[in-house]
Model the fold of this input.
Amino acid sequence: MPKTDEPQCLIARRSYRILPLTLLAWLGRQGARAVAALVFLGIIIPPLGTLLRPFVTEAIFLLLTISFSRVDTIALRGHLRRPALVLAATVWTSIAVPLLFGGVMLGSGLNVSAPGLFLGLMLQGLTSPMMASPALAALAGLDATIVLITLVAGTALVPITAPVFAYMFLGGALETSPIALALKLSELLLGSLLLAAIIRRIVGRAAIERHVDAVNGLNVLLMLVFVTAVMGDVLPQALANPARVAEIAAIAFGVFFALLFVTALVFWRTGRTAALSLGLMASQRNMGLMLAATDGILPGTTWLYFALSQFPIYLSPQLLRWMAGRSVHSKANPPDSVHKS
Done:
């Protein structure tokens, strides 16, 4: 009897250890559906956002770490041998977009008429693209590799560019000083890059590829922390002042799609897939990074704008999958091949 019981115990223990990975892998395979569900989950369960809000900085740090640990170094070297498009896209998203935001916002007088909304819009323009952009591009059937490489270059520049543009356009509107912002951004990015290098060294490329669905599931859980944290106040404010929330939501959608289509138009000669890919990347600004860098010390209207901006970001893969067409989707790298080491 002991001989037969022992293998059963071992099997039970092994199953218990495997179960979390299985659940994470299932979540990771849900793709765009899971990403879109995060937005609505954050709205209908406000206490969840209140509970998770203190952990936004840690969640953003871990999202950065996971993204860096999955960088496709082979594709990176390939694109760096043809750097013109990467360089142009990096200049566009890191310099042209912040200048565009600053010019439009100051020209419209929004800094005087609605300072909280102005701050939200400017922080959106100053930051780099989201670390989840390559995964969302893959879900939309677009070129995730060019998105990833431009994202890495833009993210490397943001500790320099964001404080400079914050000094130029924000002045005293941001409680965090430009120097403190630069230091915090550098700490987040360099720390996550170092941790990612350690993970890649210890775990290895094969393990990351083998458990790619589970890693995608972990990404979804970490995105849940950020999304629910910013979404927690949406329902109460919508009930209290629906017209104001609807107006800010319309601005969030308008800015997202304007940036997407202007970027796609700028890069249209590179081909439809590359243009839409870069448009998606440029429109998905890493507002979570700004939340982490400022420790969440932002006005209520800025928080609300950040929250409502998540709708177009997380719903866009479904729309762009239709725009890119089935033929593009079939040729694009699947999500689990985007981040090969």
About this structure: DSSP finds 19 helices and no strands in the chain.
